[in-house]
């Protein structure tokens, strides 16, 4: 029970820290942008999921691929702003995913299994 | 068989390069223009006479271009075919052929080293992709920057040799790497390319050590290899590094600012968003300018542009799973992140870095500077992805179908790159950047060479003289780009364009405008003086220059001016070029002695065109140092002082009831427990803001402190407001610089006026004072007085309050602050510019407030000035102000031209459109003063329809290429009807006219009402004129009270006589020019004299006087005639002198270091090989 509470607290803390980090990386220290919380929120959430369940990293790569496909379609149909936002989210998710693969890459020299 | 395989890629890429070169050069013409100009036109001359020196005197009056040294090896190699008789076309074709081959084959070799020899076809595909990708087509070839071409050609070799070095750590590999760098040194002509090169090499080394981690020892060895490689790179490149970094930083800082770099970065972020970056596309040229037409916005081409991206993505994923490719996959992420610049995601670190580190400004276009690495990384991952797709596809659908799909894929891509095969790569669809220098240019150059008969004194002035770097000529195939005369006219240096040095550019602007109305009228002596100041011997009039739509003037008008000058001989004409020569008796040598000097006290930021200040027998001297008092007293004959600052003052009216609304909003007051969190948020926010936003934020915070004080008192809180008041007081020095910049007009054009904001701060402080008592009241009053002094110090308000009754409603007051070196009598002058007749009383009298006194003065013409008499002024700061009164109405309505149904009755003009035709009235503005602001005011009533149009037509406006009878004015605006107002509306329209404009017409036009856009849901249909025609209806607009005025803003000067002019010359001088950076000679003077040297002012020019083997260096090095160099020789006597550009020595110093570095490496190579030999034995 205790370890579960610790685990939850750790996840919440990790989520909060990563949320703040992603927010700052995106917008700096401007704190009035309430409408722009979605991307850092999603990224932090997905990062926590990948951290807790490493097997979901493969799904994230698929999600990145889906984002890029939708980005292409959106661009094709002239929704440039949406295409840009989606590609930004997809690319940031890709960076986060590869970042979590880094220990394996450094140790083995490649990703053995996604 | 193996040997055949080795030869095949070479032959393949030679063949491919040959095809492309044939496609580009089959017309037999050279390409040129743009930012590059004609770099391969005359490589021998450029290498030996221009680029091999830091000082480029061929770009007269001279400029230091240290990074030009990097072009010497390339130019030397290109001079070989030139010497063998090759034409510029052949030289350029040869260069491009070699670069194309190096790109393709180099990438192939690099890919081969990564994929392994069995995968040589894959390596070939990498080479082909590297040649044919959107980045190469648009950003390298189409952009036509030669440094970029060299970068992409040599990058594969740089990477290959670097990887050999860090892996094998053999001195031979290091030597190879340094050799490749030497061959590629032209890359660093764009200094910014040092960043992508070393960023890439750093990441390659880092990933080599870390992926996989092979232990600390290996990591240290790699670090050492990196440092050694870097060290020897620095050493062997010192021959250009040392001169460049000794000279260029100062120049760079004077031209660029952190804010400017940040603004460029932000404005380019729209074109580097991921949907573009991932496709290696620069949308500016491909879509927005549509240089190749709108075909690239066609759905098929859009699809094609995305085709290779998934292949690269597959390669990226596959690469992560294989040790030999994982580095490239990781590198892809890094390079994409760096290339997109300020575009999301995670762009804050980029913006923060730019705001706080000035050197980062060199990469203010990240897609261009760092994105140049993308094609290489893409090429590798594309091949990896392609390999996987082919293998998978063969497994599922068989070989023949797979190869069929591959062929379609290749064909689609080659279709995308059709401009490369159609020879439309350089230029636009309609016009290629062909350049054919007319033979008249060579003939003119040869004529001048012959006329000089061996001497090389003087310069060629090209008129009309562009004030920027670019020019457009109407040659056979046109020319648009960097002015090329320096390379074409080799007889003498050319004054042919503006230089990127602020002070010198002002002087050149004056030299340009003096040959144009109204400055050219009755100013023969000033023209001669300026020709002599610039050491001009010949003038070439270019009738083939395109002057409309720019800053230039009609060369035919200049021809009239030149023909009427007595001191010029019209020598000969070649094609569109006419050569004039300054008569020998009027020619002034480059170095001379001068006596009569007029001191021009000009603060750094205030420069005026010398055509106002030039006098026919006096040299104008100014100093960068502030304390010139002793020099003035001892050596000056006259002094002209320009104001240290000039600003407009508009008294602010503050309405108490509106004050709180106009001040920043405050929700949480200092007596609230949440207040500390508010302060924390403010501090965090401030620390992260880019520099451009910090000032506005600080001003807002200052306002918040005041409002907090007021609201605390309003609320009746017991909390003291003294801390808030003190904090406000401390903020004033922190915002001082920003306020001064905004007052001077350099920044904050789009912001709310700082005067507006600070006036409200003042009013709030007054309110606070009324609500407080005792200690708080004292502090409030103290802060109030501090703010008033602050406003005076920062020139928001004048030091002396405007005397009552002097301020006119709706009229600005122009305040000029002079810093006088000593007290005495000064003559008040105002630049005339022929403006007298358009102001009330013809400015025979004018009212000035001088400090605290009002003076009504009589004005009389004195040359190019209006003199308002002598005044006693004290030393130090003096303030002179006058009302910037409006002129008389300059609109000549009675002489107006009308078209269509136009009725004039009393004061009203009624414009009625036809059902399908417009009606307009053209009103002349007379007289016209180029460079001035004008204000058009009128009342309008749109009775039918919903809008009317105003165009300001200037004689310098270009013609519409589609409809040559129609002009394309800079000012073309629509005024729309407010549906709630169906009566007279007062309108104001401000416009600025070009300095070379001599005729202005205001066209007020009413077009038929376009009912289509109102009634039809599909606006696209309305773009079809045949369709929208049926919906047009009548429009009617009535206008009255049309007035056009300009405002009296002519600058003021103060002049003071110091001593009587000296009529006798006090010396003799003879000199020879040893080379571009060195002069020597003899000088004899009988009293203190000034030596004038007519190259651009640069502290690097040093004069040494030698007498009896002792060397004296004059301590006073001043600026002459706003651009040149002058030294004071105080002691009379006979001297030998040497005048040198001292930074030139850095080349020798650099070469010594470079040679040393090379020798050390060679020693290591020999030693290494020797050891290997012994070890083998």
Briefly characterize the structure:
The complex is a heterodimer of chains A (114) and B (1177). Chain A is mainly α. Chain A contains 4 helices and no strands.
Q: Layout of SSEs?
A:
The complex is a heterodimer of chains A (114) and B (1177).
Chain A (H helix, E strand, L loop, with lengths): L1 H26 L10 H15 L3 H21 L3 H29 L6
Chain B lengths: L1 H24 L4 E2 L11 H9 L3 E2 L6 E2 L7 H12 L4 H28 L4 H12 L2 H9 L3 H23 L2 H13 L10 H17 L5 H21 L1 H18 L2 H11 L5 H4 L5 H6 L10 H22 L2 H17 L8 H9 L9 H4 L4 H24 L1 H18 L1 H5 L11 E2 L3 H14 L6 E5 L6 E4 L5 E4 L2 H4 L5 E2 L6 H12 L10 H10 L2 E7 L12 H9 L4 E7 L2 E6 L8 E4 L2 E5 L8 H4 L5 E4 L6 H7 L2 E4 L3 E5 L6 H7 L12 H14 L2 H25 L6 H22 L10 H18 L2 H20 L19 E8 L3 E8 L13 E6 L2 E6 L1 E3 L2 E9 L2 E8 L7 E9 L1 E5 L2 E5 L6 E7 L7 E12 L2 E8 L16 E6 L8 E8 L7 E7 L2 E2 L1 H4 L3 H4 L2 H4 L3 E2 L2 E11 L5 E6 L9 E9 L2 E8 L3 E5 L7 E7 L2 E3 L4 E4 L3 E6 ...
Parallel strand pairs in B: 5-8, 5-9, 13-14, 13-15
Antiparallel strand pairs in B: 1-4, 2-3, 6-7, 9-11, 10-11, 12-39, 14-42, 15-36, 16-17, 17-23, 18-22, 18-36, 19-20, 19-23, 21-22, 24-27, 25-26, 26-35, 27-32, 28-31, 28-35, 29-30, 29-32, 33-34, 37-38, 38-44, 39-43, 40-41, 40-44, 42-43
């Amino acid at each position: 029970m205790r370890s579960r509470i610790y685990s939850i607290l750790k996840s919440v803390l990790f989520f909060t820290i990563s949320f703040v980090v992603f927010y700052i990386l995106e917008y700096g220290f401007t704190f009035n942008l309430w409408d722009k919380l979605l991307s850092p929120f999603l990224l932090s959430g997905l990062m926590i999921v990948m951290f807790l369940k490493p097997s979901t990293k493969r799904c994230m790569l698929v999600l990145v691929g889906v984002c890029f496909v939708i980005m292409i379609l959106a661009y094709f149909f002239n929704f440039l702003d949406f295409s840009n936002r989606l590609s930004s989210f997809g690319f940031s998710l890709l960076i986060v995913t590869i970042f979590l693969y880094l220990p394996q890459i450094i140790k083995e020299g490649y990703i053995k299994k996604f | 068989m193996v040997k055949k395989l080795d030869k095949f890629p070479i032959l393949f890429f030679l063949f491919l390069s040959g095809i492309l070169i044939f496609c580009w050069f089959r017309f037999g013409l050279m390409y040129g223009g743009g930012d590059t100009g004609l770099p391969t036109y005359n490589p021998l001359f450029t290498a030996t006479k221009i680029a091999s020196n830091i000082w480029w005197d061929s770009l007269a009056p001279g400029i230091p271009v240290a990074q030009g040294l990097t072009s010497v090896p390339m130019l030397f190699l290109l001079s070989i075919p030139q010497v063998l008789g090759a034409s510029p076309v052949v030289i350029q074709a040869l260069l491009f052929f070699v670069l194309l081959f190096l790109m393709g084959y180099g990438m192939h070799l690099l890919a081969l080293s990564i994929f392994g020899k069995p995968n040589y076809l894959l390596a070939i595909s990498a080479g082909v992709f590297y040649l044919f990708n959107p980045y190469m087509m648009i950003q390298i070839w189409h952009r036509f920057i030669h440094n970029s071409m060299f970068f992409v050609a040599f990058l594969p070799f740089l990477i290959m040799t670097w990887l050999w070095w860090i892996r094998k750590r053999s001195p031979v590999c290091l030597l190879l790497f340094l050799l490749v760098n030497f061959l590629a040194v032209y890359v660093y002509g764009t200094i910014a390319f040092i960043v992508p090169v070393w960023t890439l090499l750093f990441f390659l080394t880092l990933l080599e050590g870390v992926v996989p981690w092979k232990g600390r020892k290996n990591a240290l060895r790699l670090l050492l290899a990196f440092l050694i490689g870097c060290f020897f790179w620095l050493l062997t490149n010192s021959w250009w590094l040392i001169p460049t970094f000794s000279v260029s930083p100062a120049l760079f800082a004077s031209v660029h600012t952190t804010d400017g770099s940040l603004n460029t970065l932000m404005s380019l972020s729209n074109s580097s968003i991921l949907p573009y970056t991932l496709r290696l596309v620069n949308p500016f040229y491909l879509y927005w300018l549509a240089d190749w037409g709108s075909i690239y916005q066609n759905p098929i081409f859009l699809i094609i542009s995305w085709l290779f991206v998934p292949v690269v993505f597959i390669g990226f994923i596959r690469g992560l799973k294989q040790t030999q490719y994982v580095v490239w996959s990781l590198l892809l992420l890094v390079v994409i992140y760096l290339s997109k610049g300020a575009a999301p995601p995670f762009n804050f670190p980029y913006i923060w870095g730019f705001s706080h580190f000035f050197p980062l400004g060199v990469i203010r276009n990240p897609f261009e500077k760092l994105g140049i690495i993308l094609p290489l990384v893409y090429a590798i991952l594309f091949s990896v992805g392609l390999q996987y797709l082919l293998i998978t596809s063969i497994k599922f659908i068989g070989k023949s179908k797979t190869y069929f799909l591959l062929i379609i894929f290749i064909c689609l891509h080659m279709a995308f790159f059709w401009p490369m095969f159609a020879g439309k790569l350089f230029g636009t669809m309609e016009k290629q950047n062909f350049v054919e220098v007319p033979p008249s240019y060579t003939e003119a150059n040869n004529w001048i060479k012959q006329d000089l008969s061996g001497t090389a004194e003087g310069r060629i002035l090209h008129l009309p003289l562009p004030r920027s770097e670019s020019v457009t000529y109407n040659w056979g195939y046109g020319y648009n780009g960097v002015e090329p005369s320096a390379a074409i006219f080799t007889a003498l240096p050319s004054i042919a364009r503006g230089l990127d040095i602020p002070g010198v550019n002002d002087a050149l602007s004056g030299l340009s405008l003096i040959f144009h109305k109204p400055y050219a009228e009755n100013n023969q002596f000033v023209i001669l003086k300026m020709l002599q100041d610039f050491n001009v011997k010949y003038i070439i009039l270019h009738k083939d220059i395109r002057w409309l739509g720019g800053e230039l003037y009609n060369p035919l008008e200049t021809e009239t001016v030149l023909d009427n000058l007595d001191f010029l001989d019209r020598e000969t004409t070649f094609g569109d070029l006419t050569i004039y020569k300054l008569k020998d008796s009027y020619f002034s040598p480059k170095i001379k002695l001068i006596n009569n000097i007029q001191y021009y006290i000009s603060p750094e930021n205030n420069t005026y065109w010398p055509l106002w200040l030039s006098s026919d027998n006096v040299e104008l001297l100014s100093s960068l140092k502030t304390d010139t008092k002793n020099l003035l007293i001892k050596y000056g004959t006259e002094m002209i002082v320009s104001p240290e600052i000039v600003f407009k003052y508009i008294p602010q009216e503050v309405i108490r009831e509106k004050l709180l609304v106009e001040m920043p909003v405050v929700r949480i007051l200092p007596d609230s427990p949440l207040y500390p969190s508010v302060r924390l948020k403010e501090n965090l926010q401030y620390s992260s803001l880019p520099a451009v936003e910090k000032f506005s934020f600080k001003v807002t915070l200052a306002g918040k402190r005041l409002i907090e004080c007021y609201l605390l008192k309003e609320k009746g809180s017991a909390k003291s407001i003294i801390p808030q008041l003190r904090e406000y007081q401390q903020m004033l020095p922190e915002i001082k610089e920003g306020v001064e910049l905004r007052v001077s007009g350099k920044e904050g054009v789009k912001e709310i006026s700082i005067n507006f904001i600070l006036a409200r701060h003042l009013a709030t402080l007054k309110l606070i004072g009324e609500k407080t008592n005792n200690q708080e009241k004292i502090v409030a009053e103290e802060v109030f007085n501090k703010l008033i002094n602050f406003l005076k110090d920062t020139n928001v308000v004048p030091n002396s309050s405007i005397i009552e009754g002097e301020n006119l409603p709706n009229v600005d007051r122009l305040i000029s602050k002079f810093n006088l070196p000593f007290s005495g009598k000064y003559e008040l002058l105002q630049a005339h510019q022929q403006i007298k007749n358009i102001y009330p009383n013809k400015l025979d009298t004018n009212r000035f407030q001088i400090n605290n006194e009002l003076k009504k003065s009589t004005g009389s013409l004195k040359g190019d000035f209006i003199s308002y008499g002598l005044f006693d002024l004290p030393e130090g700061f003096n303030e002179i102000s006058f009302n910037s009164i409006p002129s008389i109405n300059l609109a000549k309505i009675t002489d107006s031209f009308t078209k269509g149904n136009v009725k004039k009755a009393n004061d009203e003009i009624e414009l009625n459109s036809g059902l399908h035709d417009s009606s307009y009235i053209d009103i002349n503005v007379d007289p016209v003063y180029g460079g001035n602001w004008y204000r058009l005011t009128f009342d309008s009533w749109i009775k039918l329809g919903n809008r009317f149009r105003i165009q300001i037509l200037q004689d310098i406006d270009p013609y519409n290429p589609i409809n040559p009878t129609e002009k394309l004015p800079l000012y073309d605006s629509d005024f729309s009807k407010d549906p709630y107002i169906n009566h007279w509306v007062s309108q104001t329209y401000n416009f600025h006219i070009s300095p070379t404009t001599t005729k202005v017409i205001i066209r007020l036009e009413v077009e038929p009402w376009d009912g289509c856009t109102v009634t039809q849901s599909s606006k696209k249909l309305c773009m079809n004129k045949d369709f929208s025609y049926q919906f047009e209806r009548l429009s009617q607009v009535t206008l009255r009270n049309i007035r056009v005025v300009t405002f009296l803003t002519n600058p003021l000067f103060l002049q003071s006589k110091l001593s009587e002019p000296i009529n006798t010359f006090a010396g003799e001088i003879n000199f020879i020019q040893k080379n571009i950076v060195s002069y020597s000679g003899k000088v004899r003077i009988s009293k203190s004299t000034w030596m004038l040297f007519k190259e651009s002012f640069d502290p690097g020019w040093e004069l040494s006087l030698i007498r009896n083997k002792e060397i004296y260096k004059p301590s006073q090095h001043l600026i002459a005639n706003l651009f040149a160099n002058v030294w004071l020789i105080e002691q009379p006597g006979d001297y030998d002198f040497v005048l040198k550009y001292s930074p030139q020595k850095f080349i020798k110093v650099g070469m010594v270091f470079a040679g040393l570095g090379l020798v050390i490496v060679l020693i290591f190579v020999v030693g290494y090989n020797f050891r290997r030999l012994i070890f083998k034995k």
